[in-house]
Design goal:
single chain; alpha/beta; 2 domains
Length: about 350
């Protein structure tokens, strides 16, 4: 066996003292043992750094890297990639967990096919303010083996439809491919994972997909209620949609199916932005929210894509119809209702999102 580990797990660490040990333990308890774990302490002000050192001292497979100043998750991942010795790299968040059989599940496919990227499924785990789990949602994708860039490109829009495309943590990447690609991690307040993937997948020509639940993505009520407010949320979502559109348009592959999926995403993004505009931190009153909506309704790119939208869920279908018919009052009323449900009944909001 080579001295270099087969897998490297890169885990940026910042202000996750309460969850870090569980995340690390889920890696160390893998049934497959030929891996290294890089804990990149992004100058965390809590006790996370000490936890990193404790694990590094106890297990030779763990290395703790302490950054001199906070640079954000993208910078921490860059440092981790530069330091990684493994053949394949997984970027994991420090408040989530892996299935203990994940590496065993993917090792055979990677050894046989040597794909540039391997993707797997995930479970969204919803917890209340006391940390109790009230819902679990498995996100699957059919098992596939894609060996040409055209096949990978055509699959991306279907993967995005399930939300699995944009994440870093549900993919093993060939370390050599990442380094040779020259794609850099973007420093963004939102969608930095997606931006990295959309740039990388412009050259991906081999993708293996396994229908296994390998990652537990925690959505915590206490974090969502106290989370940071991203003022330019919608412009970042617009950029995401535009990136996907360009991804296909530049290869003359922007089909009606692509436009339909992008239209569905646009509909969700508008209502998500509108309910955020109801947040006091947005400094928007009813008149400003109406003006914002009218501006979006006049945008040619928005109008073209939403005409192609055809959501499958009942709630999403109603919201889409309101946008297509430009029912401004009802749109704003629904957005206000969504905001109230999200802030006062977060469990109900989570269930509504799952069934949209």
């Amino acid at each position: 066996m080579d001295s270099a580990p087969f897998f490297t797990v890169v885990m940026p660490v910042y202000k996750t003292e309460s969850y870090l040990s569980a995340a690390v333990e889920s890696v160390l308890h893998q049934s497959f043992t030929d891996f290294e774990l890089l804990l990149v302490d992004d100058c965390s002000p809590d006790g996370s750094g000490a936890i990193c050192d404790r694990y590094a001292a106890a297990d030779a497979r763990v290395r703790a890297i302490h950054l001199p100043q906070n640079g954000g998750a993208s910078h921490a991942r860059t440092v981790g990639l530069q330091s990684a010795q493994g053949k394949y790299i997984l970027f994991m968040d420090s408040d989530d967990a892996l299935s203990t059989t994940l590496m065993d599940s993917v090792y055979g496919e990677i050894s046989a096919q040597h794909p540039q990227v391997l993707m797997f499924g995930a479970q969204e785990v919803y917890t209340n303010s006391e940390g109790r789990v009230f819902s679990r949602v498995d996100i699957h994708y059919p098992q596939k083996r894609l060996t040409t860039h055209a096949d990978v490109r055509d699959e991306v829009i279907s993967i995005e439809k399930t939300t699995l495309f944009g994440y870093l943590w549900n993919k093993f990447y060939s370390a050599k491919f990442l380094r040779d690609s020259g794609v850099a991690f973007a420093d963004m307040p939102l969608n930095e994972d997606f931006r990295y993937n959309i740039e990388l997948f412009r050259t991906v020509s081999s993708l293996s997909i396994l229908d296994v639940i390998g990652y537990f993505y925690y959505k915590r009520e206490n974090q969502s209620l106290t989370g940071r407010f991203v003022a330019d949320y919608f412009s970042l979502q617009q950029a995401r949609i535009q990136d996907l559109f360009n991804f296909y348009a530049q290869e003359n592959a922007c089909t009606d199916e692509v436009k339909s999926v992008l239209g569905n995403i646009y509909v969700r993004s508008v209502f998500s932005a509108l309910q955020r505009n109801c947040d006091p931190r947005s400094d928007m009153d009813a008149k400003a929210r109406k003006g914002w909506l009218l501006t979006q309704l006049e945008d040619p790119f928005f109008r073209d894509l939403t005409l192609h939208a055809a959501p499958e869920g009942k709630l999403a279908g109603v919201l889409c119809a309101l946008l297509q018919k430009r029912r401004v009052f009802l749109i704003l009323l629904c957005a206000r209702g969504i905001y109230i449900v999200k802030t006062r009944l977060p469990a109900l909001f989570a269930h509504a999102k799952q069934s949209r």
